[in-house]
User: Which sequence fits this backbone?
């Protein structure tokens, strides 16, 4: 069964950190890229970060310098380390590969 499963979301105070995980199954991580997106109610899904199988990364300007995407191929897992979180980072975060998205994990940044 092909799937992406996110975990690690929660409620955190501004300035703190969270690490999201996305574990995949049912496919081989090939030439496409793994990505994290996020979405808030009433807005379109926003691209956050991407990583290729070889480890090349890209970040949106809104998270550059604060978020780090990484890959653990042996564990079939990708991570999104989020530091210095801001209230505007509040969203449902989704893992993506090709046309597939996971179910999402809620991140809420609030004091």
Assistant:
């Amino acid at each position: 069964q092909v799937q992406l499963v996110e975990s690690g979301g929660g409620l955190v105070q501004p300035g703190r950190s969270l690490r999201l995980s996305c574990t995949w199954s049912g496919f081989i991580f090939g030439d496409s890229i793994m990505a994290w997106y996020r979405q808030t109610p009433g807005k379109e899904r926003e691209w956050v970060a991407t990583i290729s199988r070889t480890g090349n990364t890209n970040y949106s300007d809104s998270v550059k310098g604060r978020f780090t995407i990484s890959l653990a191929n042996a564990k079939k897992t990708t991570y999104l380390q989020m530091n210095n979180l801001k209230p505007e980072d509040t969203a449902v975060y989704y893992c993506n590969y090709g046309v597939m998205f996971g179910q999402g994990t809620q991140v809420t940044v609030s004091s």
Observations:
- The mean pLDDT is 95.
